[in-house]
Predict the 3D structure of the following.
Amino acid sequence: MKLLRPLVALVILAYVGWLAWPLLSPLLNGGGADVGAMRAEAEVATGGDLFGVIPAWALWAGAVGLYLLAALLLGAGNTKASIAYFLGFLADAALRLAMDRNGGSEAAARSTGPTTMSADLGGLPVDPLWLILGGLLLLGVLVIVAARRQRRQRIPGQFAY
C-alpha cells in the first residue's frame, strides 16, 4: 500500500507529460513560445468553442493543470487529490468527446472496419476513445484508494499530532 501512492502519482505525471507534449516539444527543440502555442492549438482544434461557451484550449490547459495538481497532492498525501483528478478527468473527457464529435465522419468510418486505430475485441470494434476514458476512470479509482488516510489506533492518553 505504501508504494501505490507514489506509483499512481508517477503514472499521472507521465500522462500529464504526454498530454502537454504538443506545447512542450517546440520549447525543448528551440522554438519560441508562439510556435508551441500554435502547435498546441492545432492539437486541440475542435472547430472553435465547445458548445459556444468554453474554448478548447481552456479545457486542454485545465486538464493538464488539474492532473498536475492531483499528482502533486497525491504525492504529498492530501486527500483532496481525487477531487482535482476527477475535475481534470471531466475537462479531458469533454475535450476528447468534442474532438471526436467534430471528426464524426472519420470516427464513424474508423469504427465500421478494422483499422490500426480500433481494437477488435471478440468481434466488437472498440473505439480507442472509450478505452482511454475507461483507463483514466480506472486510474481515478486508484487515486481514490491511494489518497485515503490510514487511521491509526491511538492509545488512550496519547497526544494527537
